Task: structure prediction
Amino acid sequence: MRVVSDMSAQRGGTASRRRATVIVAAVAAMAAVFMVMAQPAEAAAASIYPTGASGYDVSWPNCSATPPSRPAFGIVGVSDGTGYTQSPCLAQQAGWFSNLSLYVNTGWYNQSSYINPTSPKVCASGDNNCLAYNYGYNAGLYAVSYANSLNIHSSTWWLDVETGNTWNSDTTQNRNSLQGEYDALMASGVTTVGVYSTTYQWGVITGAWLNSWPSWGATTVRTASQAAKYCTGHRFTGGPTYLIQYSGSLDRDYAC
Result:
């Protein structure tokens, strides 16, 4: 009886080890899947902005600025502070950077003369979500058209989302406006569209919308080493953090 008991325990131990091996293998397989899923976003970010590099972002407030020396990359504003406007120094500033990205100011203003109820979607009367989408979509086309008119092109664009701009109190309408602008840029051949904002402002404007778009975080820190600390834990869109902004004579940006 004792021998039988020992053998039973041995069989039980063997089965437990087999189950443990299967569980470990399953966990490892899941981890491998997540790593493969994460790699494209990380690789895309590194191909645009080399990890650890610092660049600059400039726009209409910097029209009289001195060009930075040997920047790793630059992000230039297309608009003049609000949607459907044109930065007067876009061409000048775009010439400062060989690795060029563009950004555009966004918003949703339900009294705007730029609201088009029939393009790209035909909106039913009173459908403000549809109107917001069209407003954003056509704002994106407007920005691309202006950049193209100056022969300025980039495969990477950022949507500048800040509470100081023209937004509605309805976060669903705001989301629709941003989705429209995102879709317009992608339809125009842009391959990467991300969001510049902060966790707080993104929450106020969109209701903390998790759409997995790349994020570029704004901070008030003053060094690259301080900015690097914000590369983790601040994914306000749920997507990867590509850049963290920090302060200088011109705005600086650290590549995560």
Q: What stands out?
A: Residues 2-48 form the longest helix (47 residues). Residues 1-39 have pLDDT under 50 and may be disordered. The longest strand covers residues 100-105. The chain has two domains: 1-45, 49-255.
